Amino acid sequence: MHQAHADSYLMSRLASLPEYSSGNSTGVRLYGSVDLGGLYTKADHASGNFQMQSGGMNTSKFGLYGQEDLGGGLRAEFKLESGFLADTGAMQSSALFNRESWVGLKSAEWGAVRLGNQINAMLPLFIDPFGIVSTNSVYSWVGGGVVQSAKGVGYNTDLGIGASSLPTRVPKAITYTTPRFGGVSAQLIYATNVADTTNPKVATQGGVVSYLTEPFYFAASYNQVWSAPLALTPGAAPSGVRTDIPAIGVVYDNGKIVLSTSYMLMAPKVAQDGIARLTTFGAILPSGRITYRASAIYRDTSGVRASTGKEVHDAALGIMLGTEYDLSRRTTLYVRLGTVRNYGTSTIILNSTPLPFEVGKFNPQTGIATKSLALGMSHSF
After folding, report:
1. Which of 4, 222, 285, 336 could form a disulfide with 322 if both were Cys (CB 3.0 to 4.6 A apart)?
2. What are 247-300's pLDDT values in tens digits?
3. What is the pTM of this model?
4. In a domain, 4, yes or no
5. Which residue ranges in the chain fall short of pLDDT 70?
6. Does a structural domain hold residue 3?
7. Region of residue 23 (phi > 0: left; psi between -120 and 50: alpha; otherwise: beta)
C-alpha cells in the first residue's frame, strides 16, 4: 500500500514514523519507539489489577535499517529490530533481534527478495485499526485464539490437538514480493522448521495478493502453518499438524475516515479438530491532533469438543476503543478501553489477564468477560 493516494491517512501516518520514512536514501538508520503507561484489568469473579504496561500503543523497540545502491536500479537492504519492555528495560525474548532480522535485494522492476526473520505474507497489519500490537488489540487476542486451559495458555488449543495460529513474524523465511502492476501486487513466503527437524520440514508457507484502487485496498491471503511434531494416536510416529488459514480483507481510506473489515478461517487438518471463523470490523476517525479508533472481532467455532467428546458451543467477542492526542509528529498520549466476552466454553484472555479458576480445580471458568483500561505515552525516534 506504499503507493496509496497522497491523501491516505494510513500512509501519511506511516510516513511520520522514522522506520517507514527512509525512502531511497542509502546508509543506515536507527529508529524505534518507547511506549509506557498504566493498565487496569478486571475479569468477572476476580479482583482488578493495576500494573505498568510497555507497548500499549506501539511496541517498545529499537532497530537498524540500511540500504546500499548497487546500480542498475538494484539495492541491497537489511533490517534488525528488537523489542524490549520499557518498564524494566528487559528484552522481550532471549533473541536479540526477535522482531525482525533479515537481508535482501530489491528492484523497482523485479521486486524484492528477503531472507530471515520477517513479517508474514498475510493481510496487512493495518487491517486492524490498532496495528495488531501484542497488548491492546482484540485482533491479537481473540483473532490469535489465545486460550487459557488447565495446561496453561496456548493458541487455538480449544480447536484440538496440533491447532496453530497465524504467526505475525516468521523466522528462517524467504519471501518474494512483486512490483505493483496495475494496482496488483503479490508476496510469497516459505519458512523451514525452526528446530531444524525433518518432520515437519516446513513451518509456514503461503502468500497474499493485494489490489489497490484509490481509496480502496483489497487483499486475500492463504497460509499453511505446521505445529511441532505430535503423536496423534498412541504408538504413532510424531508428525506436525497443518493448519490452513485463508483470509480476505478490505480497507477504505479517503484521508478523512478509514474503514476495514476481514474474514479469516483457521482449520487444522485433523479430523477431530474444530474450526474457527473470525470476522472483524474497524474504523479510524482522525480530527486534527485527535484520532479515534474502534475495532470489533467475533470468533465463532464449530467442531469444538468437551473432554467427553460431545460437541460444545464456543465463541468470543472482542471490542477495543481508543483515542490519541498528538503532542507532536512523534509523541502521542493515548487511551485504550477493551473487553473480551466469552460464550459457551470459550476461555479467550485479554492483555495476559488470567481467568478465575473453577472451585477446587485448575480449569478456567467459562462465560467470563475481561475488561481493560490503558493510558500511556508513546514516542517514536
Report:
1. 336
2. 999 999 999 999 999 999 999 999 889 999 999 999 999 999 999 999 999 999
3. 0.93
4. no
5. 1-6, 16-24, 196-198
6. no
7. left
